[in-house]
Amino acid sequence: MYVVYILYSEKPDCCYIGFTGDSITERLKKHLASHKGFTRSGTDWKVVYTEEYSNKKDAMLREKKIKAGKVKQ
Questions:
Q1: Rounded distance, CA 60 to CA 8, Å?
Q2: I want to staple 2 with a disulfide (CB 3.0 to 4.6 A). Which of 14, 38, 51, 59 is the partner?
Q3: H or E stretch including 67?
């Protein structure tokens, strides 16, 4: 199972769109940990939206479609 997700952080007031084959709980823990990626700027990321897919290809396509539309909800 793959999950497309949107995270939101108040500190930088922005969203992050991604997909994962891990559980959303585990993935969120990684975003909240210290690292060098995009989500390092926020410390209060929250999952605001998820969609489940049975295969990686569909999840990747949906993530790209959301990013292309610059969805911010």
A1: 20
A2: 59
A3: helix 56-68
Amino acid identity for residue 60 in this structure: M
Number of separate domains in the chain:
1
The DSSP annotation for 17-57 comes to EEEESS-HHHHHHHHHSS-SSGGGG-S--EEEEEEEESSHH
**Does residue 42 belong to any structural domain of this protein?**
yes
Question: Does residue 10 lie within any of the structural domains?
Answer: yes
> Which residues form the domain of 9?
2-68
Q: What is the pLDDT of residue 67?
A: 94
What are residue 50's DSSP bridge partners?
A: 5
